[in-house]
Backbone:
DNA sequence: AGTCACTGTTGCAGTCACTGCACTTAATCC
DNA sequence: GGATTAAGTGCAGTGACTGCAACAGTGACT
């Protein structure tokens, strides 16, 4: 009896992927509010309890397991770099490559579903706040580096933490733009890599106008 | 028998304010997760059903009824202004004065509670997205004004909407900072007015470092 | 005084998201 | 072949939230 005589037997990754895929498809078809966890479970062929063993919340299943994180190597380079601060900082946050879903179309479907839904968008923002502390510290280090190079006095150095905080908040807003514009460019095909050069150039033009 | 012989009699505003105040205090004391709607109801002296007649969700009670909105008069001045773009734009978003709670300390307590909690922060962000479209259009007008003054060519003008979008996202991040630092400065006393000059000066120093 | 509409409030029953605990079954290791 | 572990399940319970029906004051009209 190899055909599911009760408890399914598959790897964690497979089940997780099945849940994610089923959840996204259902939300795209019926809308976020109309989809219950029970429906997702039925579509994925599992029990509700198993669903919550794989995902902490319904939203988590829709956002997926690929959380944004700071690229530590890039962060070390960032601190001592001379390049444009904001554009470079935006490049620090990436999705861990080993957590990317096996099915690439899932990402596009997900962005489609998430961008339609304010609730999910808010949750996605919430994820970013998790790494904001880390980000602020890295930016503070970079500011310190820059200030020392420029021969700053003590009063200026003392103000850097506050400045780092402002920049971190600006960056949080910027990252939302990066995500959105990337999704927009992806359309319904395979997502293209983020164009760092393009972002840098455009940001440069924008920043000059802010002051 | 004037003392609550069953159904309380007070205006909507009074009950709403009582709920908000009780909710905030409980969250500050016990933390978001530890506070149930039932607890809030008990503290405010109402039934659960009444709670949900006043607020759609538990989060809504904590965020309050005073939603941020754009000051239209200020917006008109902003479009033709020569001042620092980002700092001035941050001043456009205000809480409608007639929706301010009677008890001024409530705002400070609320920001305190909200800033502690990622869940609530996300919800607050969600509210801001409601006015982001409007904000983007205003910024686009200002950019156009500036560009024409500077004698920009068609290619530059065509890029302005995209730039406006980036700035709007940066601004969304900045507003979070403004709220936080304002609450921090308020401490536990009466909230002081936001110091526009201070913000402008500090932002100017920061923006120079972004490029 | 009697009726009427309105407002603020309530209880109750039910759905949905989510959790803790105890338990089964299938694969794996020794 | 028995012990261990990984994946999954059932169940009972909590907390957020909704729809429905009802009830009590408040004022207004007659």
Residues:
């Amino acid at each position: 009896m190899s055909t599911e005589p009760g408890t399914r037997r598959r790897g964690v990754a497979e089940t997780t992927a099945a849940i994610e895929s089923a959840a996204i498809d259902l939300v795209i078809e019926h809308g976020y509010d109309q989809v219950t966890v029970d429906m997702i479970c039925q579509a994925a062929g599992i029990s509700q309890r198993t669903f919550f063993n794989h995902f902490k919340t319904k939203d988590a299943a829709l956002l997926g397991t690929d959380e944004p994180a700071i690229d530590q190597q890039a962060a070390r380079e960032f601190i001592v770099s001379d390049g444009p601060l904001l554009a470079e900082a935006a490049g620090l946050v990436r999705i861990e490559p080993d957590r990317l879903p096996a099915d690439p179309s899932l990402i596009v479907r997900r962005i489609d579903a998430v961008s339609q839904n304010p609730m999910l968008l808010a949750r996605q923002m919430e994820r970013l706040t998790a790494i904001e502390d880390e980000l602020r510290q890295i930016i503070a280090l970079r500011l310190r580096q820059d200030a020392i190079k420029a021969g700053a006095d003590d009063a200026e150095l003392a103000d850097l933490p506050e400045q780092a905080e402002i920049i971190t908040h600006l960056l949080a807003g910027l990252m939302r733009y990066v995500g959105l514009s990337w999704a927009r460019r992806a359309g319904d095909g395979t997502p293209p890599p983020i164009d760092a050069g393009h972002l840098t150039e455009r940001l440069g033009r924008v920043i000059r106008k802010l002051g």
Residues 149 and 199 of chain A are 26 Å apart (CA to CA). Chain A touches chain B at residues 84-86, 118-119, 121-123, 125-126, 129-130, 143, 146, 159, 162-163, 165-167, 169-174, 176-177, 202-211 (CB under 8 Å). Confidence is low (pLDDT under 50) at residues 1-6 of chain A.
